[in-house]
Specification:
With 296 residues, the protein is α+β, with helices and mostly antiparallel strands. It has 2 domains: 142 residues, MutM-like, N-terminal (N-terminal domain of MutM-like DNA repair proteins), CATH 3.20.190.10; 125 residues, Orthogonal Bundle (Helicase, Ruva Protein, domain 3), CATH 1.10.8.50. The protein contains 6 helices and 10 strands. Strand 2 and strand 3 form a beta hairpin. The relative contact order is 0.14.
Length: 296
């Protein structure tokens, strides 16, 4: 599933190609793609046609497109295989095209090279989707209601490091579980959790109650470092399902130090990396650099 860097790459693409454009037509080709919009496909389309799209926004793994002058936004979740693609209107339809959104051309808010393009939501496994939601009341961030509980992410300038440390200690859990708790810190998934823990020399079962302020600060530093490194190369693409809005893959998988490297030598000490089943996922770690806690 795309994590913060991959979703941020998509957000930047939407901001470049879609922000400021006025919707002229909406076609819902598969109802499951908007199943979270309970009023159905016709209502979804009617509430968008003739409306201008605001600046693309993101929190954690969620992104949304504000619909100007309505107090609502199109909330997008990519799920396991969702793609938001900007394509020429005359391009052949993708096999798993689910929703098509066309724009008025010419349009004052349209970049010159965006004319004649449309936004497509493509999803092979249909775990993702689009939906229209009102914003949380009195929320300066204009968060759609379903994600009002999602915490800020570590790349957000307003993220509070001290509050994170205090909440981390109070959770009485283990450090990787805490990193994946989207109500504590958003945007971190299995890949970047393993990478940040490897950089921090922390075992994934380290109790959060044992995390000192310096260790919490170091962990946050590495979370930010690995995410910024991934952003610089377009995110992590293990297969063709994650791409940016222009259909291009990211290349950070070539730089991964922990995730997916079972039996390969640790880049720090040379010890073979290990993989352990963990919460229906896998955790990758170095048994020498990331020693398990003495008391679990």
């Amino acid at each position: 599933m795309p994590e913060l860097p991959e979703v941020e790459v998509v957000r930047r693409g939407l901001d470049r190609w879609v922000t400021g454009r006025t919707v002229s037509a909406v076609s819902v080709l598969h109802p499951r793609a908007i199943r979270r919009h309970l009023e159905g496909p016709q209502d979804f389309a009617a509430r968008l046609v003739g409306r201008r799209i605001g600046a693309a926004r993101r929190r954690g793994k969620y992104l949304w497109l504000p619909v100007e002058d309505t107090g609502s936004s199109v909330l997008a979740h990519l799920g396991m295989s969702g793609q938001l693609l900007v394509q020429p209107q005359d391009a052949a339809d993708e096999k798993h095209l689910r929703v098509r959104i066309r724009f008025e051309d010419p349009d004052d808010g349209c970049p010159a090279d965006a004319a004649g393009t449309e936004l497509r939501f493509v999803d092979q496994r249909t775990f993702g989707g689009l939906s229209l939601h009102d914003h949380a009341p009195d929320d300066a961030e204009a968060l759609p209601l379903p994600i009002a509980h999602i915490a800020r992410d570590p790349l957000d300038p307003a993220f509070d490091d001290e509050a994170f440390h205090v909440a981390l200690r109070r959770r009485r859990t283990t450090v990787k579980r805490a990193l994946l708790d989207q109500s504590l810190i958003s945007g971190v998934g299995n890949i970047y959790a393993d990478e940040a823990l490897w950089r921090s020399r922390l075992h994934y079962e380290r109790p959060t109650v044992s995390m000192t302020r310096p260790r919490s600060a170091e962990l946050l530093e590495h979370v930010r470092g690995v995410m910024n490194a991934a952003l610089a190369v377009g995110g992590t693409s293990f297969d063709s399902l994650y791409v940016n809005v222009n259909g291009e893959s990211g290349y950070f998988e070539r730089s991964l130090d922990a995730y997916g490297r079972e039996d390969e030598p640790c880049r720090r000490c040379g010890t073979p990396m290990r993989r352990r089943p963990w919460m229906n996922r896998s955790s990758y770690f170095c048994p020498r650099c990331q020693r398990p806690p003495r008391v679990l």
